[in-house]
Amino acid sequence: MFKRKILRRKAQSTIEYAMLIAVVAAAFIAMQVYVQRAARASLKVLEDQVNAEPQ
Predict the structure, then answer these.
(1) pLDDT-derived band of residue 2, with 50, 70 and 90 as boundaries?
(2) Cα–Cα distances in Å, from 21 out to 16, 25, 27, 44, 46?
(3) Which of 2, 6, 10, 49 falls 20 to 30 Å from 34 in CA-CA distance?
């Protein structure tokens, strides 16, 4: 009886960690779009500064 409870707790803990990892991975995937957009904008500003005609 005690072994079953221990095994259930371990299985529950494993499932909880797997779900947590899945949520974190999904958050990183969702953030990737915004990070790429910000990086492209920064590179565009830098490119515009480099290509600007001297005054």
Answers:
(1) low
(2) 9, 6, 10, 34, 36
(3) 49
In angstroms, the CA 5 to CA 20 distance is 22
pLDDT tens digit sequence for 14-49: 889 999 999 999 999 999 999 999 999 999 999 999
Nearest-angstrom CA–CA distance, 40 and 46: 10
Nearest 5 degrees, angle CA 55-CA 48-CA 46? Answer: 115
Tokens of 51: 């290509």
What is the four-CA torsion angle of 36, 39, 45, 50, rounded to 10 degrees? -120
What value, to the nearest 5°, has the Cα angle with vertex 37 and ends 32 and 38?
100
pLDDT band at 3 (very low <50, low <70, confident <90, very high): low
